[in-house]
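Our consortium's second objective concerns turning raw sequence data into structural hypotheses that experimental partners can test. To show how far this objective has progressed, the report includes one record in full. It was chosen at random from the queue rather than selected for favorable results. The single chain below, 169 residues long, was entered without modification.
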Amino acid sequence: METGDIVFVVQEERHDLFQRSGDDLVMEKEVMLIDALVGFSFKINHLDERPVVVEVKPNDIVKPGDIKECPGLGMPVYTKPYEFGSLFIKFNIVFPNTLTKEQLGGLKNIFNPSPVPIVEENTETVTAKPYDLERLKRRIEDHQHRQREEEFNNGEGDEGGFRAGCTPQ
């Protein structure tokens, strides 16, 4: 029999936790606000099923979108089987929906809140409220539609600056 090459085709499977990026692994982790401020640890099962505890030390405050690196927890480096890439963790901070009066008071004691502005006689005070993103998108689309109609009606919306229709005689 004639000798030849053996060709292997390897296909990656999706993983629930990790995404591969070359020799590195990437994952996302949700963290409660209190943990992001005071430090925390969490356990993951690595691809080889070994448990790994990841620590974020106190005073290493995690902000929304921060990325931390865990060297050596990635994939094996090609042609260097004893070297590994890194695990990168992107953090999403979960903020509380409400706070009790005690919690508000405690936070104000811990942090120095912004100073209250001096209100002059003719100063208007308004309260900022949550907005509906879908409603905002509709308002923008309506505004753009009205603007296009206005441009068309003023002769700016079609080629050559001419409008269709009858000309007065």
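The partners drew two points from this record. Residues 33 and 133 are 24 Å apart (CA to CA). Strands lie at 19-21, 24-32, 40-45, 51-56, 67-77, 80-94. Both points have been shared with the crystallography group to help prioritize constructs.
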